[in-house]
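Annex B. Sample input.
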Amino acid sequence: MLSASANERLTHIGPGTPAGNLLRRYWQPICASSELSEAKPTKPVTVMGESLVVFRDGSGNYGCLAERCAHRGCSLAYGFIEEDGLRCPYHGWKYSVDGKCLEQPFEGKASRYKEKIRQLSYPVERLGGLLFVYMGPSPAPLLPRWDVLVRSDGAHKLRIHPVLNCNWFQAQENSVDTVHTHFLHGQMMKRKGLSGGEYYLRPIESYGFELSEWGIVKWREFGGDKPEREKGHPAVFPNMLRVPEGPWHAFHWRVPIDDYHTQIFWAGFLPGEPIGNTLDDPPVVILPSFKDEDGIYLLDSFQSQDTMAWESEGPLFDRTREHLGASDRGIALWRKLMLDQIEVVENGGEPMALLRDPSKNTLITFDVSEGQARNEFVEVREDYYAMESDVIK
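Annex B, continued. Sample output.
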């Protein structure tokens, strides 16, 4: 179990919080670029407890501003798009994508008051049909060119999940929960008479975790009639998951809305013949609720099963009440990694898995060679496990 103070450090993500300060060092998806249109040129979003508005000005530049106008707090989500910025619908103050106040119609022609006003703004970049925002200190790192977003030898698709009614860390911890798939997905699908979970019903002979430059790779060896060591299944620091098995290669982002709600974005890539212009303009699927009309979880898909498990832990799981077992070593390892990187930021350092070198950002792939020697990782794993006592207890 965790102490109450450690649980708080890992889960609270508002401005100035330990985990919030860490997560703000990384680019986060905020919406699909196709969600902004001529008919709906702005979109209000809440990211890590901050109310924002994302927009595209008349020149095609993307911006992300604090939603409340610096003048008298009116929502800029209802503002007017102009060639060089976004104009507040209340009194007409206009802001550029970088937050400069360009006009204040009723302050007089000679007034220089607008030069003293700056709307909170964050840089926005588009990649693979998603808009990403960076909310941390300057200079911003490079936006990673993940393979599922930039490969041109196949088809692309995006999914946006219904809002998850729980803290982001409950979803992210699941990425290093190696054994939950047997019951939550394999047995659940079997007992409901559905196909799709057979892969996870095979006996697990062994499993483990390998530290990498991007986070933690989990591996499993299955026995039975079709023994197999699956490809590495990376949990990408700090709030992502890469699924390397087919047919769709996928990336998941677990973006905190606030301490009690999370938005999950899914980007999929299907290797093969390209289909239309899905690289720049992928189809976007807005997934429906995972509950029936009575509010009961459907449990007929992996997504609904995961959602049930995460949300039923409560809006923010009290980890002082848990009892970790030997199979939870990946959970303890991820928590230790998070707490270590929080401390790095608190000490003025730069956390792991940030990109600054453009030569290393052409195509980031996670394919793990079947022939990779496992003993290369044993020493660092055992070293790290030895430091987990304060996390597990």
